[in-house]
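User: Please write out a complete single-protein record containing the residue sequence and its fold in token form, without commentary.

AI:
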Amino acid sequence: MSGNSSGFRTFLKSGHAPTLFASFLYFDFCFAVWVLNGAMAPFISEAFNLSAAQKGFMVSVPILAGALMRFPLGVLAQYIGRKNAAMVEMGLIVLALAGGYFFINSYNHVLAMGVLLGIAGASFGVALSLGSGWFPPKYKGLAMGIAGAGNSGTVLAVLFAPPLATAYGWQTVYGLAALCMTLPMAVMWFAAKEPPDVEHQSLRQHVACLFEKDGWAFSLIYVITFGGFIGLASFLPTYFYDQFKVTKIEAGQLTMLAALMGSAIRVVGGYISDRVGGITTLSGVLIMVSITLVLCGLAGTSLALTTLLFMLCFAALGAGNGALFQLVPLRWPLTTAVAGSMIGEIGALGGAIVPNAMGLSKQYAGTYLWGFVLFAVLAIAMLGMLRVMQLRWTRTWAEKGGRARG
């Protein structure tokens, strides 16, 4: 064990640990704000008497907006620095949350608020680049893993928002969240230092991977693994509350169990991929996701079984996110950050599929089953594509199964 701890100390000394911690905290709190409407959806739905389709759409708006705002924030970070871009973003989030506290009184206002919450979803690329920027290449993967573990912010939102909304009203939660955002802002301001690894990428370089088949292949798989994670994490409070008639607070706690699995297993997915290869890991992940999703749809009467299946599904999704980002540096060794942010953007857009599919399935078929089936079919389609593409990948830039060469 002492070997592990001394190895971790060596890792921390090789870079700037306070900046890494500030990046994690920034991403963690931003992620919590990003999924806030999902965590409070049962309260908001009740307040405005929403239909199933309206609920699904409401939950998907912040996901879509966040995905679309990633690119502009990344460009801003290149001009004013990543630390400054993070400070600007958090300042805007505080203003948006304050607006939510004072001004929301209709469903349309909630949708507009969803767009503003999307500002928080843009933090992904900046947080990972800032966190790993001080570390040498051999430690970048671990640094990105630690900063990326900020997607555990989902857990904060689903655990704390429902009890606070029950006690003080759901609009007050926006105000409390605005106060909480001052913590990562203070840590970022005092602890973080702009890394020396300046990457000025032109627009052409940034979108270059979209002109390659491999860029689209990675992005579409990420639609399943990350899109599935953010989409389900945002929709599950509504699903548990509507399907099983649990309390709003219990719905949040059950979602937390699943989301925690997805965040914790991400690092494990990267570790396994280093050993057996990302292609092998992703193949197992996509099979597991499709099976557990269909079973979730069929187990709609058993709360215990459904919760267990969602935990398995999220574990697979988390491992898939780690596995995909083991492959990205192998395929784009010189433009890893740029390729990663473009794949992340399209993957996050995929997160809007889940809540909308669920809402429409419930509204028009009277059951959530077809929403689950649709996403399971997409996962199987991506598995088929992966198996075809890997024939060329293992001939050109990866060893058998997707391991690193040499």
